[in-house]
Amino acid sequence: MLSEKGGVPFKLRVLSFNIRHGLGTDRRVDLHRIAKIIKQSDADIIGLNEVDKSFSKRSQFIDQASWLAEQLQMEYVFAPAISIRSRKVEQREYGNALFSRFPIQQSKSHIVRLRPFLCEPRSIIDATIQINQTLVKTLVTHFSLHPLLRRKQIKKIVEESTGELPTLLMGDLNCRPHSRDYREIAKYFHNTCDKRIQKELGTFPSRRPKIQLDYIFVNDKFEVIYSDVITTYKEASDHLPITSLVKIRNNIPITL
Question: How would residue 256 be classed by pLDDT, with cut points 50, 70 and 90?
Fold first, then answer.
């Protein structure tokens, strides 16, 4: 999808999707459907939530991030939110994944939690992707349903987004537009969905979407061209994926 202008990326397609470990509304786990949706989207950078890595029988103990990366022929990063030692496999894990057509120069994972056993911890992928001669910071997360933990995640994201790089934030953020937590994020990022083609269409539940929970945000180093919800293969997950076409502004300095 990338085109160039003076060595700077002109257009970049981004996709965010909560895949629910490939479990569709028809109760079938089918990663082939997920791969097909991503391929048809022609996305350059993809953030996925609820990805299993050798997690359990529900997903046949498959390393889903690795399998999808092979199908997509992309580089990837996986960041577990839950890690469990097991007799069957060395580590059972569940969390977020990032895929990129371009080199992932570095990445780290932040784990955000409240005191033990109060609620499920959450992970944040914090990666730097090299696109031509420009570095793009990319954050992928799945916000908690617990309001205190969700606010801790927002605080951590804001702390990690204070640099000068073009920055993407994507994921199932479990908050509705114009809620308190949404407004806090919007202080620092622009919602690409403000330029959404299908204005009234939500991302959840996938069969009859009524609310938006999934987002792609960018900082002011990006210009948003448009955003849309993908409605094909509604049965693939309980969420619908969202895609955005963005442009890195031409006045961004070369960083390499």
Answer: low
Structure tokens belonging to residue 244: 């955005």
Of the CA atoms within 13 Å of residue 52, those in its CB half-sphere come to 19
Alpha helices in the chain (DSSP H): 31-41, 64-72, 147-159, 180-186
Residue 159 burial (C-beta neighbours within 10 Å; 0-12, 13-18, 19+): exposed
Neighbouring residues of 174: CB distance < 8 A, sequence distance ≥ 6: 142, 143, 144, 145, 150, 213
What CA–CA distance (Å, rounded) separates 19 from 7?
Answer: 34
Direct distance between the N- and C-terminal alpha carbons of the chain, in angstroms, rounded to an integer? 22
How far is residue 249's CA from residue 239's CA, in Å, rounded to a whole number?
31
Over the stretch 69-91, which tens digit does the pLDDT of each residue have? 999 999 999 999 998 887 766 78
Asked if residue 95 lies in contact with residue 19, where contact means CB atoms within 8 angstroms, the answer is no
Q: pTM of the entire structure?
A: 0.93
Distance separating alpha carbons of residues 178 and 75, to the nearest angstrom: 34
C-alpha separations of 81 from 53, 113, 248 in Å: 11, 9, 31
